[in-house]
Specification:
The radius of gyration is 14 Å and the shape is elongated. α1 (10-21) crosses α2, α1 (10-21) crosses α4 and α2 (30-57) runs antiparallel to α3. The protein has 4 helices and no strands. The longest helix has 28 residues, at 30-57. 26% of the residues are buried. By secondary structure, the protein is an all-alpha fold.
């Protein structure tokens, strides 16, 4: 299922990242974890496509190409996973989604 959207509110995504990365401290409710998962996935998907475009334009098998492909692969692995049923596992999952957003943003900016 693809949920890629257009422009995103950067401040809102930053808030989601902050909340998701803190999710392993005091565990949020499963309802909130589901909301974070639902809101972060489209941003990861959007960034994967942006970084994939950069990888397609990079010299094949160069250091830059490998770095971009690594970030894409890591993000796609997380996207394959569904939100776990338990609060701790769910918190770890949304925190990883947030880390993927941060890593993909950094890769996107490193043009």
């Amino acid at each position: 299922m693809t949920t890629i959207k257009g422009a995103v509110d950067v401040d809102e995504v930053q808030h989601l990242i902050t909340e998701a990365l803190g999710a392993t401290g005091q565990l949020p409710s499963m309802t909130r974890l589901a909301e974070l998962d639902e809101q972060l996935r489209p941003e990861v998907e959007r960034l994967v496509e942006a970084v994939r475009g950069q990888a397609d334009n990079a010299e094949p098998h160069s250091g830059k190409w490998h770095a971009l492909r690594t970030e894409i692969d890591r993000a796609e692995d997380v996207l394959k996973a569904r939100l776990p049923d338990g609060p701790l596992a769910g918190s770890l999952h949304v925190a990883e989604l947030a880390r993927r957003v941060c890593a993909l943003r950094q890769a996107e900016r490193a043009r």
